[in-house]
Design goal:
Shape: globular
Largest sheet: 11 strands, mixed
Bound molecules: threonylcarbamoyladenylate, magnesium ion
């Protein structure tokens, strides 16, 4: 298949949006930027179109897709009921990096929801995304636009690396703003539950609707409790090199990693390090990459997946990463990093 690139890095282009809309209405696949990560879009109400997403990504068919909308009113058309808490959250955080789970109605095919009676819905805070959704018919199913098992793409180049020749179009809107996937909240039960942490954290949700719980599968110290979002249970992206997180006081962490670099290099290993602007110069040897300043959590979240992809291109055998327990997004950042490390955290 021939993949077309639409360059919208300098601004939205009406003709390109119209072409994307036509592809989507004809059952094709278009990758597009959102404020979180790039998505791979198809018409959510067309089971055959949704099936193409699974084929292009190599995604297990029981892993449901998020339906993206451009207007709050569109929600009523695809769910059985909109609970009051969802209305309040939509008013507070839509358009934005929040996905909510509802009981679906008959318009949403099971091919989109992985056979579930619930549907995940989100309205992205990105002009290109919303215009494309409108042009494509208003309901666009979109997982992250990576090959299943790789980190979510935060640039159009990441999408091209994974899906070139497998999809009809990539809209290049430049680097994304957040870099981690949306927060998912399940509102289909009695108490709202966070199934995936993201930019919108527990505190922000509770300030609008009161008690919100964390899915126990997310906070378990190991992978013994199964998370509720089907996608969170799959073996997640792990870099080619073994990744270990070293957690503790900054100076102790640096000392420990320096010791590990020295030991590794003596054995002829090539060591990668994920540090910050504040610590990068304190490392002796290894290939050191800064994820950004420890005081700018959005920079850290933006860079995480890109750095993991960069290390895959290098011949490092081990990667040591600092922990990034930042105040607002720490939970989301560490959730993804811990998975990439296969739960290997050493406290020092
Ligand atoms: O930020 C995002 O949410 C990005 C952008 C493109 O919008 N999308 C994204 O989609 O991250 P994906 O498919 O990579 O992740 C969707 C997650 C999966 O873990 C999936 O299992 C879960 O949402 N999910 C979808 N529908 C669900 C449902 N009905 N019940 C429980 N979990 C659901
Ligand atoms: Mg994904």
């Amino acid at each position: 298949m021939k993949t077309i690139i639409e360059d919208m890095t300098t601004g939205i282009q009406a003709a390109g949006i119209a072409r994307a809309g036509e592809i989507l209405r004809n059952g094709g696949l278009v990758a597009f930027p959102t404020e979180t990560v790039y998505g791979l879009g198809a018409n959510a109400l067309d089971e055959k179109a949704a099936a193409k997403i699974y084929a292009a990504k190599g995604r297990p068919s029981d892993n449901p897709l998020i339906v993206h909308i451009a207007e709050t009113e569109a929600l009523e058309e695809i769910v059985v009921q909109v609970p009051e808490a969802a209305r309040q959250l939509a008013r507070a955080f839509w358009p934005g990096p929040l996905t909510m789970i509802f009981r679906k109605n008959d318009r949403v095919p099971y091919g989109t929801t992985g056979g579930l009676d619930t549907v995940a819905v989100r309205m992205p805070d990105h002009e290109i995304a919303r215009e494309m959704i409108r042009a494509g018919g208003g309901y666009i199913a979109a997982p992250s636009a990576n090959t299943s098992g790789r980190p979510s793409p935060t640039t159009a180049a990441h999408v091209a690396d994974d899906l070139w020749g497998r999809i009809d179009m990539i809209i290049d809107g430049g680097s994304v703003g957040i870099g981690l996937e949306s927060t998912i909240v399940d509102l289909s039960g009695e108490t709202p539950v966070i199934l995936r942490p993201g930019y919108i954290n527990q505190e922000m949700l509770q300030s609008v609707i009161g008690t919100v719980e964390m899915d126990k599968g997310l906070i378990a110290a190991d992978s013994s409790v199964r998370p509720k979002a089907p996608g969170m249970k799959y073996k997640h992206y792990a870099p080619k090199a073994e990744l270990v997180i070293i957690e503790g006081k900054a100076s102790t962490v640096v000392d420990k990693i320096n010791k590990l670099i020295a030991e590794g290099e003596k054995k002829g290993e090539m060591i990668g390090v994920i540090g910050t602007d504040e610590t990068r110069d304190a490392y002796r040897g290894g290939i050191v990459k800064s994820i950004g300043s420890i005081h700018e959590e959005l920079t850290i979240s933006q860079h995480l997946y890109g750095i993991l992809r960069e290390f895959d291109e290098l011949a490092v055998t081990k990667i040591y990463s600092e922990a990034f327990d930042t105040p607002k997004m720490g939970q989301a950042i560490m959730n993804r990093l811990i998975k990439a490390a296969g739960h290997q955290i050493w406290k020092v």
